[in-house]
Amino acid sequence: MNQLEQSLPLAGARPDVDLASLYRKIIWRLMPFLLVAFIINAIDRINISFAKLRMAEDILLSDAAYGIGVGIFYFGYILFEVPSNLYMQRVGARATLTRIMVLWGAVTVATAFVTTANQLIAARFLLGMAEAGFFPGVILYLTYWFPAALRGRITAAFMMSGVVAGIICGPLAGAIMTHLHGWLGLHDWQMLFVLTGIPAIVLGLFGWFWLTDTPGQAKWLSPEQKQTLATALATEPGKTQGGFSQVLRNPRLYIAGLVYFCIYSGSNTVSYWMPTLIRDFGLTDLKTIGMVTSLPYLSAMAGMYLLGRSSDRHLERRWHLGLTMLVSAGSFALLGFAQGNAMLSIALLTLGAAAALSAVPLFWTIPPAFLNAAGAAGGIAIISSLGSLAGVTSQAMVGAIKTSTGDLYLAFDVIATLLVLGALALLIGIPAHSLNERRNQKPTKEQA
Q: pTM, whole model, 2 decimals?
């Protein structure tokens, strides 16, 4: 037996079906598309952090207005996130993801042609509306195909693609804005939006022909494989019973939303303000800034893999997540003491950002462990929406602090405080016994 097979639930597996081969087949069919989609998604969100370095003069964009533009994206996202996820249950993942990707790609391209700060704010609001439901939709979609024993690693792999986007986006943006200024009569930042928006449209259209809504509809699985998969997923441990209305009365739903709010305040601030902070360290060359921004994402990839594997191996989520949040908080809190020392500042930023980014996939192993199948779509979307409020409030807060004080260190102190509060809320408000994951599915030390 190989490592993958040892970590899988074997209940209900047909003797003529190789369970490890079945899951490898599903992984190779679905995950490449989802990984590339999330890479493009993350790039189209954070490309504005690099465009800001040049577009601010062209459209008279202040730091405060930039913070509002970044934050209002999440206002549009929140408004349509729950309806989009609930609607996905009716029309399927294929139609939902195609619609979302084509729309967000079109809005990204259109952002290249804004001429005022207000137009940029409007474009970001429309981008939030267009993207609404993508991330929670994929998280829900993964539960249709993978059991709890694999979900930590699968979720971590999916989230790693967002980290890959962070690694790619800096050098890519630096190269586009350095070499393509004036191409087709457009400014450097305009070319950035155009060239990062088109791939979403193309991949979204491809997804219509490639994705399958449910395992039962997968023509690329044999009847025996479908039966084995259905049996394995049906034997998932019992969760909170009742439909969506009962889920709404579960206090852990809102505690999880608060925890995600705190985590997202950290990871989101890193994504949108890291280039500006690095420039404040004394680095001015766009290519250099782009390369330095890759360091936290490279570190986060290692952290996501190791933490996801460890949390799956031990089927322990809370302490893995809580300690990761505290490491991020400590690193951000120390940034102010490292002013004037560029190397130490970069090291602290790298550790804090990597921990904040690594906390996101760890967190998303928790909600499916206490939500039932009937309420999972709405519950995941509500948690994501509550967390996304951080995108509205934290970014406006960071922009206001940067405008009034001239630096970002106080803002990162506030983010550190939120991460500590989130870790305490997690460990106190979501007890271990509420996470119904099969202890008898945990692989042994030798197997893992």
A: 0.68
